[in-house]
């Protein structure tokens, strides 16, 4: 059995700010490990907008999210930073100089200091408060993302929500579903005029039926097999829609996930830090990037880069208490050759 992974600094997250913090740690001869719940590095840039240009990265008039991550990966290559991907950090214990992290894949990491670069924390869909919902989620009768469009062929689907996701998926799935009920609690949908016009065409064609203003009220079926969705208007008048699938599109919510239980002060899904060091309320634990909060904070990648540098410098005396850190430029110091 492999023992725990030992490192100077454990970095929770592998988004852009975590990657640059790993570079700064490397320059200060601090070993580190990157841990991310996603299967790939890059955080929001890789997962949400790999092909969207970013215009405010210094010295890059325009760079796509994916290209930025590739460049950051090349920048840390000389330091051979181990990555634990596809696993969430669940638990943090210990104290300044001796922390232990446990991941959802059963890995244990022992570190002298921690950098939390967890962005918005765990993303998750807003779930409707319906009795017995979990059973239908498990069977796939209720889903929040369309992973494989083909799975919806010939289905009778209730698409719930009034925004772009609901409208776009109602249109897209109307091409192969048996029937789409488009449910919204208001009479009007929020969508581009072009989209709304296409919805009306499908209503006329009988492929989409608008159910407005109605809200989800109950799910009926057995053993995870959905038979009908009960909806109610504001006066409580009910309707039963015969359907085998419910797709609620009520947006994404973020929450800190397990980080909220780590005995660190938090405010509304962010972690307050001391601006000069990025240290949290728990000594030896630092927070950078979108998750870090202090007066004047901008949730921008460039600010997260600078926070990574400051946190690494603040961590140096924890790892090397007997070695004074003399500030040096990267040009005088050089970067080791990639192995
Ligand atoms: P993230 O990129 O959010 O990465 C955090 C990582 O931590 C995630 O991969 C997550 O899986 C992981 N994580 C969370 N909790 C755990 C846990 N418990 N265990 C393991 N892993 C965990 N910014 C700009 O500066 N310029 C722009 O032009 C710009 N455009 C944007 C456009 C869009 C569409 C979006 C959505 C954002 C944009 N941003 C832009 C914002 C920018 O992407 C964020 O500021 C940046 O990604 C924050 O980086 P981060 O490293 O702090 O966190």
TrEMBL record:
Residues spanning the membrane: none
Keyword Flavoprotein part of the UniProt annotation: yes
GO MF assignments: ferredoxin-NADP+ reductase activity; flavin adenine dinucleotide binding; NADP binding
Enzyme Commission no: 1.18.1.2
Residues noted as binding FAD in the record, renumbered to the chain: 17, 36, 44, 49, 89, 123, 290, 331
InterPro entries: FAD/NAD-bd_sf (IPR036188), FAD/NAD-binding_dom (IPR023753), Fd--NADP_Rdtase_type_2 (IPR022890), Ferredoxin-NADP_redctase_2 (IPR050097)
Keyword annotations: FAD, Flavoprotein, NADP, Oxidoreductase
Cofactor(s) it depends on: FAD
Catalysed reactions, as listed in the record: 2 reduced [2Fe-2S]-[ferredoxin] + NADP(+) + H(+) = 2 oxidized [2Fe-2S]-[ferredoxin] + NADPH
Cofactor binding mode and count: Binds 1 FAD per subunit.
Family: Belongs to the ferredoxin--NADP reductase type 2 family.
HAMAP family associated with the record: FENR2
Subunit organization: Homodimer.
Protein name in the entry: Ferredoxin--NADP reductase
